[in-house]
Amino acid sequence: MKKSGVRGESFENLLAIMERLRGEGGCPWDREQTLKSIRTYIVEEAYELVDAISHGETPDMVEEAGDLLLQVVFLSRIAEEEGSFSIADVLAGLTDKLVRRHPHVFSDWKAATSGQVLHKWEEIKSAEKERKNRDKSLLAGVPDGLPPLAKAVRIQSKAAHVGFDWERGDPGPLFEKLEEETEELRVAVDAGDPDMIEDELGDLFFAAVNLARHLDVDPDSALSRANRKFTGRFRVVERLVADSGRPWRSFSIDALEAFWEEAKTSTARQ
């Protein structure tokens, strides 16, 4: 009970600080912000938290989680001032949803696997949409603002929930699909049609995401890993170029490729 009280007091302090920042005599910058203007900061803070989690640094995770929470409180404060909703509405809606969508915990419905839980979640979510007279498509709940890579995963996963998916356990057809999309991209490149190239390249990316999903690999994490790997190796190449005392343009592509191979070897030992 004591810990719960401390948490409640800390949250109330946060709300009071935000109220003061937005009030008369508060911070000019904070007072100027709108629901539209803080959208960018919400996305940035979410990515910074993801980055902190990826690096596994606890102090950074604590700080970035706080920054993301701040954006929710900020958003709710602006909305309350406009008479739209308050942080209390946000919390009430969230707690009601968690109870409603976990009948295996808060009611008599039983689930033996996480797959059953996810299927029930989508079933409950679909029923909620019907009651609200919203778009009843399975894909209606995929936010337009999601980064394209994450959006592709969500779209594919939702379709898979109703069986619209490749067979599990055999990635062969998915590799064939990648080859098919690669060949179609080659045709588009040969045709020199920019719109066709973009279209086919998008299909290739979408197929690659599908393969990653079937291999139980998070494509965003995989791409982030590739980015880190390239960055580490390129820094070694930069050092080798700097140590030579020569400008970048003086090296042939073969010489730079040799540096790259050296970088691959040195970073592999780390």
Task: Tell me about this structure.
The structure is a single chain. The chain is mainly alpha-helical and 270 residues long. It has 4 domains: 2-100, Helix Hairpins, CATH 1.10.287.1080; 103-136; 137-217, MazG-like (Helix Hairpins, Orthogonal Bundle); 220-268. Helix content is 74%, strand content 0%. It has 12 helices and no strands. The chain has helices spanning 2-22, 28-32, 39-55, 58-81, 87-100, 103-106, 114-131, 148-160, 172-191, 194-214, 219-244, 253-268. Helix 1 packs across helix 4, helix 3 (39-55) packs antiparallel against helix 4 (58-81) and helix 8 (148-160) crosses helix 10. The longest helix has 26 residues, at 219-244. The protein is globular, with a radius of gyration of 25 Å. The two termini are 47 Å apart. The model has no long low-confidence stretch (mean pLDDT 92).
Question: Helices, strands, pairings?
Answer:
Layout: H1 2-22, H2 28-32, H3 39-55, H4 58-81, H5 87-100, H6 103-106, H7 114-131, H8 148-160, H9 172-191, H10 194-214, H11 219-244, H12 253-268
Going by CATH, the architecture of the largest domain would be Orthogonal Bundle
The proportion of residues in beta strands is under 5%
CATH homologous superfamily identity of the largest domain: MazG-like
Largest sheet: none
CATH topology of the largest domain: Helix Hairpins
Provide the domain count: 4
- Annotation, overall tally of beta strands: 0
Quickly name the level 1 CATH class of the largest domain.
Mainly Alpha
Radius of gyration: 25 Å
Distance between the termini: 47 Å
Shape: globular
Structural class, judged by helices and strands?
Answer: mainly alpha
The oligomeric state is: single chain
Q: Report the total helices.
A: 12
| Stretches with pLDDT under 50, minimum 5 residues | none
Order of helices and strands: HHHHHHHHHHHH
Mean pLDDT across all amino acids: 92
Helix content: over 70%
